[in-house]
């Protein structure tokens, strides 16, 4: 038998072992509790990430909303309410004055002229524009638990398969020689919205006046075109496709997505919906209930229908109880188009460009200064205004700031966060400058109250118009003081050469570094010459009138 001392030693050893075991168990339980609490905190934090809905109107002027233009003659009650409940930005700009390039900037946070598209727009059968492996707003938000959807007009290219096995290009549509019938519409579409971060897509490939006239869901055409239809341009169409139905259908689809994902968003799975409208772009086709409602013309009726679309989205958010923590942004891809019929509107004292010179396609303010309303009751004070200079490329950095993400150097090169402005915490300008681009590839740069334009004339479609009006006698550059001359009437380029040099050097540095924000230098896709479009326009003299043909003897 063991002695008493040995027994006592064994008992003490047992107690020590038990103590160590219990201590370890307690530490494990505490660690597990801490881990669970941390996970719960993270989940709670993620549940506070807002839903984001980005509504992009198509060809809609700054002056088309009463909340922005007191003299507006169009009734826009839902947009006015959106503005009353949030913040209006009075100095917001697109990166381009036409469709495709602006959309590239919105989704990538990168100026459009850094891409392969140096001027103009894509077409309905054009190949993808967003570069492979480039981070986009949806791909970034997906990394942070978001469900992502795009509904509406894409216009950023996608790869359609030809019947001979090749890939369609801009040349695949030619009204006379190749009107789009060589595409195999039964084959899946490659490199569309799903390839750049969207979980779901429903809509049309480009503008509603560009074939093919079919709906697309994810990577499949919804039905095979069997007839030719013309919504300005002739082209392949599905027999049931009608342009007038597009805005109601994509609105219904967006509301459906809100309804389906509302519950998940309350549990920490927020959603991002990119909602690029087809309206009020041509074809200007308001539905019967809106026809004649404005008392002005069809374009203004269509604007009222756009306003109603915004109302339906807001109603869905409130119905689902997620309005408070949803950031809704309403803006436009460029200014109003001449197709809206400026004379008809002027006769009724409506000015879609407000007090700004020019319109869609131009380097003037009317081409790229657009409405911008942000509504987010949880964090944006109602009834506020901001005069910060912002650009639609700023969505990327703003979304990253909201979710606490750090963008890599090769993403969002021209994007800055406007979250400080949204929360009323901005004490200085959020961006150093903004760069604008016209349909013909003419540049301008804006810093503080100075705006330097690297072309004579409009650079677009208004007077003086390149290719139509004589620009050879105009100065090759234009400098305006927007504080004193918002309508860009007095060119000060000869009076302030130091300002011209400062802004020229700044723009050139943005080009050379491949970015306009801090970070490692990046490469542009192809050469960028800030003077090229202006030089070619300056050489244009007044077109010669054709001499009348001699009568035949």
Automatic annotation (TrEMBL):
<feature type="domain" description="Sulfatase N-terminal">
    <location>
        <begin position="50"/>
        <end position="404"/>
    </location>
</feature>
<keyword id="KW-0378">Hydrolase</keyword>
<dbReference type="GO" id="GO:0004065">
    <property type="term" value="F:arylsulfatase activity"/>
</dbReference>
<dbReference type="InterPro" id="IPR000917">
    <property type="entry name" value="Sulfatase_N"/>
</dbReference>
<feature type="region of interest" description="Disordered">
    <location>
        <begin position="511"/>
        <end position="553"/>
    </location>
</feature>
<dbReference type="GO" id="GO:0046872">
    <property type="term" value="F:metal ion binding"/>
</dbReference>
<feature type="compositionally biased region" description="Basic residues">
    <location>
        <begin position="536"/>
        <end position="553"/>
    </location>
</feature>
<keyword id="KW-0479">Metal-binding</keyword>
<protein>
    <submittedName>
        <fullName>Arylsulfatase</fullName>
        <ecNumber>3.1.6.1</ecNumber>
    </submittedName>
</protein>
<dbReference type="InterPro" id="IPR017850">
    <property type="entry name" value="Alkaline_phosphatase_core_sf"/>
</dbReference>
<dbReference type="InterPro" id="IPR050738">
    <property type="entry name" value="Sulfatase"/>
</dbReference>
<feature type="signal peptide">
    <location>
        <begin position="1"/>
        <end position="43"/>
    </location>
</feature>
<keyword id="KW-0732">Signal</keyword>
<dbReference type="Pfam" id="PF00884">
    <property type="entry name" value="Sulfatase"/>
</dbReference>
<comment type="similarity">
    <text>Belongs to the sulfatase family.</text>
</comment>
<dbReference type="InterPro" id="IPR024607">
    <property type="entry name" value="Sulfatase_CS"/>
</dbReference>
<keyword id="KW-0106">Calcium</keyword>
């Amino acid at each position: 038998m063991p002695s008493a001392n040995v027994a006592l030693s064994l008992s003490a050893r047992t107690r020590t072992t038990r103590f160590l075991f219990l201590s370890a168990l307690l530490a494990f339980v505490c660690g597990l509790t801490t881990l669970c609490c941390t996970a719960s905190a993270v989940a709670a934090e993620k549940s506070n990430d807002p839903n984001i809905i980005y509504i992009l109107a198509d060809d809609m002027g700054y002056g088309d909303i009463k909340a922005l233009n007191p003299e507006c003659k169009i009734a826009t009650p839902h947009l006015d309410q959106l503005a009353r409940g949030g913040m209006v930005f009075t100095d917001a700009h697109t990166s381009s004055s036409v469709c495709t390039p602006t959309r590239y900037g919105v989704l990538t946070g990168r100026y459009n002229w850094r891409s392969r598209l140096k001027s103009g727009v894509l077409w309905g059968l054009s190949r993808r524009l967003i570069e492979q492996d480039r981070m986009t707003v949806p791909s970034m938000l997906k990394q942070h638990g978001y469900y992502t959807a795009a509904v509406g007009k894409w216009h950023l290219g996608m790869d359609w398969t030809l019947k001979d096995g090749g890939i369609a290009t801009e040349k695949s549509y030619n009204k006379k020689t190749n009107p789009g019938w060589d595409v195999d519409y039964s084959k899946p579409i490659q490199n569309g919205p799903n390839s750049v971060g969207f979980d779901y897509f429903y809509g049309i490939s480009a503008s509603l006046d560009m074939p093919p006239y079919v709906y697309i869901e994810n990577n499949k055409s919804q039905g095979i075109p069997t007839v030719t239809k013309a919504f300005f341009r002739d082209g392949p169409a599905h027999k049931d496709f009608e342009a007038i139905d597009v805005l109601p259908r994509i609105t219904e689809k967006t509301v459906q997505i809100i309804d389906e994902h509302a519950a998940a968003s309350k549990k920490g799975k927020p959603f991002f919906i990119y909602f690029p409208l087809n309206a009020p772009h041509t074809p200007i086709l308001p539905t019967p209930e809106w026809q004649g409602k404005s008392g002005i013309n069809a374009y203004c009726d269509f604007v009222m229908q756009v306003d109603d679309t915004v109302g339906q989205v807001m109603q869905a958010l409130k119905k689902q109880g997620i309005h408070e923590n949803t950031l809704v942004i309403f803006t436009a891809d460029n200014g109003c188009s001449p197709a809206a019929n400026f004379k008809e509107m002027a006769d009724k004292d409506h000015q879609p460009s407000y007090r700004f010179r020019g319109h869609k396609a131009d380097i003037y303010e009317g081409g790229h200064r657009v409405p911008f309303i942000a509504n987010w009751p949880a964090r944006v004070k109602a009834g506020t205004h901001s005069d910060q200079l912002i650009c639609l490329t700023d969505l990327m950095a703003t979304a990253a700031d909201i979710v606490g993400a750090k963008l890599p150097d090769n993403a969002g090169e021209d994007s800055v966060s406007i979250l400080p402005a949204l929360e009323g915490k901005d004490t200085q300008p959020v961006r150093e400058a903004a760069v604008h681009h016209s349909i013909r590839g003419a540049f301008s740069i804006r810093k503080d109250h100075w705006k330097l334009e690297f072309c004579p004339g409009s650079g677009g479609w208004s007077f003086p118009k390149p290719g139509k009006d004589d620009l050879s006698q105009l100065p090759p550059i234009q400098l305006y003081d927007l504080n004193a001359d918002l309508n860009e009437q007095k060119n000060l380029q000869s009076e302030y050469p130091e300002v011209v040099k400062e802004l020229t050097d700044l723009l050139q540095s943005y080009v050379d570094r491949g970015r306009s924000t801090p970070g490692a230098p990046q490469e542009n896709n192809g050469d960028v010459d800030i003077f090229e479009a202006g030089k070619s326009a300056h050489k244009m003299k007044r077109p010669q009138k054709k001499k009348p043909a001699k009568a035949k003897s």
